[in-house]
Design brief:
- The chain is α+β, with helices and mostly antiparallel strands.
- It is 45% helix and 13% strand.
- Strands 20-21-19-18-22 form a 5-stranded mixed beta sheet, covered by helices on one side. It has a 5-stranded antiparallel beta sheet with strand order 27-26-25-24-28, covered by helices on one side. The chain has a 4-stranded antiparallel beta sheet with strand order 14-15-17-16.
- Helix 1 packs across helix 3 and helix 20 packs across helix 21.
Length: 758
Amino acid sequence: MTTADELLGRLAGLDRDALAKILTHRPDVLEEPWPRRLDVVAARLASAGSLDAALLALPTPLMQVLRAVQLCHALGQRPAPVAEVAQLLGTESVESFVDELAERALLWRDDGGVVLPELLHRTSFAPERLGRPVADLLEEVGAARLAKLSRNLGLPGTERKAQLLLGLVQFFRDGDRVRELFATAPAESRKLLRDMADGVPEIQGMAPAGWAFDHGFLISTYYGTIAMPIEVSLALRGPGHQLPFTPAEPGYPVTHIGADAAESAASAAALRLLDRVSAILDLAAAEPLPLLKDGTIGTRLINKVAKDTGGTPPEIALAIDLASQAGLLVADEPPVPRRGRKAPPATLAPDPDLARPAPALLYRLLLATWWDPAPPEFEVDVEALLRRLAVRVLARLAPGDAITDLDALTGLARWHAPMVPVEDFADDLRIAVQQAELLGVVAHGAVTSAGRALLEPERLVEVTDELVSRARTTALFGTDLTAIVPGSPDARLAALLDRAADREAQGTATSWRFSPASVRRAFDQGVTAGELLEDLRSSAAGDLPQPLVYLVNDVARRHGEAQVLDVASVVVGEPAVLAELAAHRKLAKLGLRAVAPTVLTSTVDASGTLQALRGAGYAPTHHTADGSIVLPARDQAEPTAAIRDPEPGDRVAADPAGHAERLLAAPSHGPALLRGQLARAMSDRYAGRLTPRQQQLCWQLEAGLPVEIAYDGEHLVVAYPELDGDVLDVWSPGEHTYRRLELAKVELAQVSTAVNRA
């Protein structure tokens, strides 16, 4: 009997509340499409992926009780007596813990004890510093060796291997007999055996040794190691030996920082990250970010972007990572180079077809990407597990309360998730908390309203809208050509000031400084003096100071005093200015030559000539051959796609109690759709004549892929079909439910495309 068959029998005997508890603790079972019947629930519960997810979510005491039950099973106690499990753990009762494990379908009660699903049986107990059961080790030993071992132990002789094995297993499971025999061993053997029993149950590179090997206290394995059976280790440790059991979570100091202080710090951090993401998107639009050969962003580039944007390397690394995962930045693979030429690096640039989300929506997108990223293939996303673990542990505290001691937080988190597979739990948790701080999910060790909204998704829109609304929309402009934003600027204000000024400082306030070069930069992007002054006035908390207005107008007067044309290249301007350029020593490398009073030619292309002239203190503009000005490349066509918040019907939250009632009312078993069965049924529907396209749609449905069909005058997207006579039972992804369709009304010929969406 398989684990799924065992589970199905158990599930069928549960009432609605008991089944709902299992579905609550194992939410992956209710992933869409909803399970139709209990046999599907049992199959999902018994899958390796679902069991792994359930084990990773166990806190320390439940994990320890489960391991004790597994040890009892390995020692032949099936079902495992609950009293024996409690004795192994050194406690009076484990009833409540066993009940909690049963509510997760990780074990179930039976007459006389506890039964484990087959997939949870263990034959190795390294975490408990124990080896393998004697029955498992002796299975690898030949009959002659078993007979000799049986004689050495004074057991009744027999020629049948099964009887020899049974007698030996019974002997070693009797701790008193093992200890009595151990007392007769030579002193050297006793020392070796005690050392191994205390924590090294299996060693490599040691030849079978004397008395211990002859009496089965040590057994040579197929892999060339020497192993001590679990039964021997437990016997030598003594009848009072106990497995670790820590039912109470470790203590931790709580610091009250105040809810207002936490929210203020979180708001500033979140708005800073939004500013960083917007700045990175602008930089990548102007010049795509080069990737390393392994497809990652290099440390040197991160440091450069951090310097350009005024951010820190951790902020920039997180911003680029989240923007890439969210699809705001997409990788562009260069074409294969010709033979003998080096391939240019792949780059990251904004998706030209995707409209940039508004600030609140962008923040929600970044939060969702960080909290629930696309899972890696064939492995556990440990980083995401630790993020959610850190937030959930801290969210149990009252708003404004924090755990600032990282060691204490590590111990607490480790207690709540001891089976998370990481090499350095403390360091990985530190990174998760650091990222949470940068996102505004955690502030000074306290979970913020944004962090709590991740645990209550229905509040996410309200919370993020309020948070982003706190961003400053105006700046204080000084006569010293500075602009100061007390607090965090919103994305529009930051983009405006970054375009026309240089960012200088950041903290509780951010400052920018205007200069001729920074204002010229804005003009180079196609802005006029009137437009720039109007934008600055609309963003000023008061009047614009006269020095800033004079600076903008002065740079505007000089802007375009010389024109660089793309004719490899030609400089056009007033005769006096061109004469000055031609005589300028720093511009000698351009090879400027007068061909007319208002025209110079250059031996350097337009881009190099522009750079040289600007480096010499001039303010040229870039024009095409027909004289029109060249605007920045980021002026592109309007995007055709946009990110939106999920609609209320886009995602339906699972209702464990409702599903439990539905599943118990349905038959336990159902028909399995065999390969080709749907095509044959549809062939009968079309009088034996299916087109290749119709056959393909049938095969796609049988494979579980969504397909668009016509049914009774409407178009439907359906998947996961089952045939029930003349009825096709299908899952409707758009409606989040199953529908029963009359086979005679299903039309495949009217639909030309399959829909491949989940």
